Automatic annotation (TrEMBL):
<dbReference type="InterPro" id="IPR005110">
    <property type="entry name" value="MoeA_linker/N"/>
</dbReference>
<keyword id="KW-0501">Molybdenum cofactor biosynthesis</keyword>
<dbReference type="InterPro" id="IPR005111">
    <property type="entry name" value="MoeA_C_domain_IV"/>
</dbReference>
<dbReference type="InterPro" id="IPR038987">
    <property type="entry name" value="MoeA-like"/>
</dbReference>
<protein>
    <recommendedName>
        <fullName>Molybdopterin molybdenumtransferase</fullName>
        <ecNumber>2.10.1.1</ecNumber>
    </recommendedName>
</protein>
<comment type="function">
    <text>Catalyzes the insertion of molybdate into adenylated molybdopterin with the concomitant release of AMP.</text>
</comment>
<keyword id="KW-0479">Metal-binding</keyword>
<comment type="pathway">
    <text>Cofactor biosynthesis; molybdopterin biosynthesis.</text>
</comment>
<dbReference type="InterPro" id="IPR036688">
    <property type="entry name" value="MoeA_C_domain_IV_sf"/>
</dbReference>
<dbReference type="InterPro" id="IPR036135">
    <property type="entry name" value="MoeA_linker/N_sf"/>
</dbReference>
<dbReference type="Pfam" id="PF03454">
    <property type="entry name" value="MoeA_C"/>
</dbReference>
<dbReference type="InterPro" id="IPR027417">
    <property type="entry name" value="P-loop_NTPase"/>
</dbReference>
<keyword id="KW-0460">Magnesium</keyword>
<dbReference type="Pfam" id="PF03205">
    <property type="entry name" value="MobB"/>
</dbReference>
<dbReference type="Pfam" id="PF00994">
    <property type="entry name" value="MoCF_biosynth"/>
</dbReference>
<keyword id="KW-0500">Molybdenum</keyword>
<dbReference type="InterPro" id="IPR008284">
    <property type="entry name" value="MoCF_biosynth_CS"/>
</dbReference>
Length: 593
């Protein structure tokens, strides 16, 4: 939801609080500030804006499922949805977003999107915000509110306006008494996209490059455009086994040619091919001077030193079956742009050009550690109520996939001084630091205390599953990623946030995860407003259709399912769930884990 192109703000209140009256008073104040406002109102299921007897009403009753009525001054689309109520997020898309600054929503208090709670004591209803994480501010006439949320007087329209304006600008007017982090005022949850945007906006691509021998440059990112020192092919050569000759001779109707030589790949012929002459030539052999065309051997009959051709003149072209010098790549043209990652084909291509050294961005050094009193290293005897540390290993392997150098800091035990010095040292040695565990909002874990002391770290709640908690910030300029504790959540959060961030820090340009569409064979559960990454197995069915099914139970601790899966099924925030037979987006995991 939060990836919606313009801000959407709801008013959550019990009926009788006076939502409409308040909105009616607020709208003129907001429009006076130049804001263009859309209002979404959720109404009783039998509401109708049409009137019996009107043409539009008659046509609807006669069977128009969608009825658009338009005039000079306004238009309205009425859509009948007798089967199922339309999806809130889909409905929002019907607004003409290019002509709005934000959307106010009245109603829909049970859906997940940023909201302001309206509360009046006389109504005698309980508070909504303790049960709705999406409420980021309260307007009430009560003095007693036990919350760190921003609070304004419900009768102070200017204060409410200011809150709304701040919300639209993505900032907050007032800070609560105690802030656990720089970002704890974020309205509602962050979407995956917002979380990633926030992370990427703080990072910069590398500046310096270094020179490496070709093979050592694998998995690194090219630091400056690579210019071809040669033509590819280097010389004009035959694309076929056959006879090289002057194409004009064929057009002139010549039928018999004198075979003057035979040219093998790796050899040349110094004389010129004259009219009426042909050279027997092999694929890849250099074209002799004078000749511009090759006729393939299958269309020839050679008799001693003479050859004739059965050529269909309609299909014949002067210059056919010849590869021109520089045809694939001209000398001095760009082979690979700066920002390209070097993998097997790039290595081969560079080698084919005779290039044996590459300017690439330096390898990233990433420090990794696990936290948690219950976490023990594999190989140790497991104590009661403890678990083995799997996160460090999945993270380290994912880092190696990306060509990073891994610094293994092990498991950090419950010792603030030790953690502090480890982190400070890592921040001077490594280009990034990754931890897992202990970062949930509301978690009183010692790691949070230390992170808050030595770095600028935000503790976020991402509207995704698996993987809700995420910490991100900097310790001495070094980016720090605090991943959740649950093993699957760690891997998925790595894919969603850490991988794109590291690729940017490595200097890679224009990277996007590979996404495909597949038909789902199983129901994929999600919730509106949340991005669901469900472990899936995709395959091609006998008709060539890409199909996907889930791996079954989706607990975020079930690491085995990550091994069974070959993709993640991504259900975006505006989709409630996917039913069997529907098309879903999948992210193949090959090459990423
Ligand atoms: P936390 O976010 O620290 O509350 O951790 C959430 C869950 O993940 C708990 O069940 C932890 O035991 C588990 N967990 C935390 N760290 C690790 C780890 N390094 N390896 C495996 N599981 C972990
Ligand atoms: Mg923990």
């Amino acid at each position: 939801m939060t990836s919606f192109p313009i801000p959407v703000l709801g008013f959550a209140a019990y009926s009788g609080t006076g939502k409409t009256t308040l909105l009616e008073a607020l709208l003129p104040k907001l429009t006076a500030k130049g804001l263009r406002i859309g209002v979404f109102k959720h109404a009783h299921h039998d509401f109708d804006i049409d009137q019996p007897g009107k043409d539009s009403h008659r046509l609807r009753k006669a069977g128009a499922t969608q009825m658009l009525i338009a005039s000079r001054n306004r238009h309205a689309l009425m859509t009948e949805t007798p089967e199922k109520e339309a999806n809130f997020f889909k409905l929002l898309e019907q607004f003409d977003l290019d002509n709005l600054d934000f959307i106010l929503v009245e109603g829909c208090k049970n859906l997940s999107f940023p909201k302001m709670e309206l509360h009046r004591e006389v109504i005698g209803k309980p508070w909504l915000h303790p049960h709705d994480d999406n409420i980021f501010a309260v307007a009430s006439d009560s003095d007693i509110i036990e919350s760190e949320l921003q609070h304004v007087d419900i009768n102070d329209l200017d204060a409410i306006c200011a809150l709304i304006e701040n919300f639209i600008q993505g900032t907050s007017a007032t800070k609560p008494a105690t802030t656990t982090s720089c970002d704890s005022l974020s309205p509602a949850f962050l979407s995956v996209e917002q979380g990633l945007d926030k992370i990427l906006s703080t990072l910069t691509p590398p500046k310096s490059t270094e020179q490496q021998s070709l093979f050592n440059a694998r998995l690194k990112v090219i630091g400056q455009d690579i210019i071809s020192p040669i033509n590819v092919p280097a010389y004009c050569n035959s694309a076929m086994d056959g006879y090289a000759l002057r194409g004009q001779d064929i057009l002139d109707g010549l039928s018999s040619f004198e075979v003057v030589t035979e040219i093998l790949a790796g050899n040349g012929y110094s004389a010129e091919i004259a009219t009426g002459q042909a050279a027997k030539i092999m694929t890849g052999a250099p074209m002799p001077q004078g000749a511009d065309t090759v006729i393939m051997r299958e269309q020839s009959q050679q008799n001693g030193q003479s050859v004739s051709f059965s050529v269909n003149t309609k299909e014949f072209k002067v210059g056919q079956n010849v590869r021109q010098a520089g045809e694939d790549l001209a000398q001095n043209s760009v082979v690979f742009n700066q920002g390209t990652r070097i993998t097997s084909p790039e290595l081969g291509m560079l080698a084919s050009l005779g290039i044996n050294r590459v300017h690439n961005y330096p390898q990233l050094k990433v420090a990794v550690f696990s936290t948690g009193d219950e976490v023990q290293a594999p190989g140790e005897t497991l104590n009661d109520h403890c678990i083995y540390d799997s996160n460090r290993f999945t993270v380290m392997a994912q880092l190696e996939r990306l060509g990073c150098e891994v610094v293994d800091l092990g498991i950090i035990d419950d010792n603030k001084a030790a953690l502090e010095s480890t982190l400070l040292e890592a921040s001077t040695q490594a280009d990034a630091i990754i931890s897992s565990g202990g970062v949930s909002v509301g978690d009183a874990d010692f790691i949070k205390t230390v992170l808050n002391k030595i770095g600028q770290i935000n503790f976020w709640r991402i509207n995704m599953r698996p993987g809700r908690p995420l910490a991100f910030g900097h310790i001495n300029e070094t980016p720090f990623f605090g991943l959740p504790g649950n093993p699957v959540a760690v891997m998925v959060s790595f894919l969603a946030f850490v991988e794109p961030a590291l690729r940017l820090m490595q200097g890679e340009k224009n990277w996007q995860p590979n996404k495909l569409k597949a038909e789902t064979e199983s129901k994929v559960f999600s919730r509106l407003g949340r991005t669901e990454f469900t472990r899936g197995i995709y395959h091609l069915d006998e008709f060539g259709q890409l199909k996907v099914r889930t791996t079954g139970k989706q607990g975020s601790g079930i690491l085995r399912s990550m091994s069974e899966a070959n993709c993640l099924i991504e259900i975006p925030p505006h989709v409630e769930m996917a039913k069997e037979g529907e098309m879903v987006t999948i992210l193949p995991l090959e090459g990423r884990l």
